[in-house]
Amino acid sequence: MALKYSRQRELIKDFLMTRKDHPTADVVYMNVRNEHPNISLGTVYRNLSLLADLGEIQRLRVGDGIDHFDADTSEHYHCICTECGKVVDLKMNNIDHITEIANADFDGKIQGHVTYFHGICGDCYGKTLS
């Protein structure tokens, strides 16, 4: 099924592509409405869900009860700061071998994994050193 063009969806996706901080729907809404004042919060939520379902963006559920969004759909990992809650991309080698390890003693078939790391982001860690 071909998806009908939507200016709002394009604005949302364009905004996400400029961000590395994995914003929430509320942050997306507050920023996109600066350019498109008539956009509703519901429209932002629906379009973020649609884009995530289509695989055009990532929906991150990091344990804070709020969905975060990432325009980078490449395989990569994230760290959640235990001090400020920031979600940060990690640059690291692929760890898909943990799927093989998980399959070793599992009577079914592990098909993938979602891994989040927890630690202190550079900004918060720098404050503790000061």
Question: Keywords, please?
Answer:
130 residues, alpha+beta, three-stranded mixed β-sheet, two-stranded antiparallel ribbon, 5 strands, flat
Condensed summary:
By secondary structure, the protein is of the alpha+beta class. 39% of the residues lie in helices and 16% in strands.
Task: Characterise this structure.
The model has no long low-confidence stretch (mean pLDDT 94). With 130 residues, the protein is α+β, with helices and mostly antiparallel strands. The protein contains five helices and five strands; from the N terminus they run H-H-H-E-E-E-E-H-E-H. Strands 4-3-5 form a three-stranded mixed sheet, with no helix packed on it. It has a two-stranded antiparallel ribbon with strand order 1-2.
The low-pLDDT segments are none
Instruction: Output the structural class.
Output: alpha+beta
User: Count of DSSP helices?
Assistant: 5
> What's the shape?
flat
Q: H/E order of the elements?
A: HHHEEEEHEH
Proportion in helices? 25-40%
Beta fraction: 15-25%
The spatial strand order of the largest sheet comes to 4-3-5
